Amino acid sequence: MILGCCLEGKFNEAISFIEKMKEFGCFPDSVTYNTILGFFCKKGRLKEAGNLLQDMKEKGLMPNRYTFNILVSGYCKVGWLKEARKVIDLMVQNDVLPDIWTYNMLINGLCGEGRIEEAVKLKDEMEHSKVLPDVVTYNTLIDGYFKHGSSEDGFRLVEEMREKGMELNAVTNNILVKWYCKEGKMDEASERARMMEESGFPPDKVTYNTLINGYCKAGKLGEAFEMMDLMGRKGFKMDTITLNTILHTLCREKKLKEASELLNSASNRGYLLDEVSYGTLLAGYFRDGMADKALQLWSEMRKKEIIPSIITYNTIIRGLCQLGKTEQAISKFKELLRNGLVPDATTYNTIIHVYCKEGKVEKAFELHNKMVEKSLKPDVFTCNILLSGLCSDGMLEKALKLFNTWISEGKAIDQVTYNTMISGLCKEGRLEDAFHLVSEMKERNLGPDHYTYSAILGALASAGRMNEADEFMSKMVEVENFREQSLQLKEQNVKTSEITEAYDPDSNACSEQIIELCNQGRYKDAMRIFEASNQKGVTLSKSTYIVLMEGLIKRRKRLSKAVQ
DNA sequence: CTGCTCGGCA
Length: 564
Description:
The chain is mostly helical and 564 residues long. It contains 33 helices and no strands. Helix 3 runs antiparallel to helix 4. The protein starts with a helix and ends with a helix. The C terminus is likely disordered. The protein binds one DNA strand of 10 nucleotides through helix 3, helix 5, helix 7, helix 9 and helix 11.
């Protein structure tokens, strides 16, 4: 009964059952408490978990091995690794030695933070102690390498597993399938699934959902539907995750009406809706400028007592920020804290962003400091947001200082970081410094792209250095650069499947379309076909690239003129 | 009653 309540997310009812148990003369034991504790931790609601633990102790129930492990898992999930380690110390003090579960969860926590090397070290440590790494340990590390390290290292570990005589299980295979999907290698992904048929671990629900998602992301909706069909034929019912994948695809295609209809009819079709279903549509509404519908959906979700996760909160906070309703956004932030949720980097970045946009750079930095305090690592998003805030507030020197600190600390930066700094420098007329950064970003293989060029071009033009501007423009149309651009577009997975379907994948037809649209000044439409043809793997003629890029420069010029 | 794989936010 209690388990049932937890599964439905009705924690309060679960807790009230504990009281009822007592009325019937049976007392909750540690299993009862551990069950509920586990669900709080899974949902990231640590405050409530803490309260329950306190309650448990007051009832004189000693935490057991399960209790400790549940807490380790809970802390690891939200990235509080120090706290997780404290629990382990506590375990030792209570004569409960960390077991394979404890190690695996800690390794998973480290991988989640991108700290793979430390995770591997922990695995070695296990081997030296009596706790031998198992298939779960390997799966965790393999997935960690794919996510945050190199795939070579991931595959190396797969080999190591084989050498040790460990069998790759369904999860191992699913991790590989997911990785192939992420790389856009759908053929290899489905080949892996086919191999699973022959191994002792046939494809399961996760495999199918992974493939469906992969095909959706690749814009291959036909294959996605085929996979859903196959999933059904193999006896797997589609579940909430399948539904959410479809919802997301519909939203991305701007088919909000269909998405909303699907959401409404889902329960009739036997689907369970969760906070991801609502959050997906919510984000879709905000993206498409239908904020009123989004807010309506939020209250509908609350009415149904579906509990928002930190990501759901991030979505609504971001939406409110975009509406300029900063106060309301902040109040949602406070609400999630009250609900015992732990804000993540995205939460902070979103609010830092809105402060920067409002010119409250000091407040933005306060929040940045808070982030560090909470041992959340400011990431490349944080950096870019702060830099852009400083630049547009006329504090270029401070921006440069931050930029240099960031680099000297060896933290990751990306193309956006460079473009932000370059455009900041250009605005102040510091072209030589900007050029310096352009060559630096080239060295790091981070560009330049048309944002970089347009910043530089704008600065050259306003300095009256027209010859150099021309020179730059011709550099832009170098074929090498276009290759890079098209690769990037592929990676960004820009989706326009409607166009993809509508246009002839014949390379000449595409090229002609693009050139024609450019001639008409419809550069945006031209870009969309360019993206679509990229997706289909259509090779365009060189002149298409040139016309398109020249068109983009003109458009950027037109835009920057409009701004001035 | 605890761990690894699938869906969403920046």
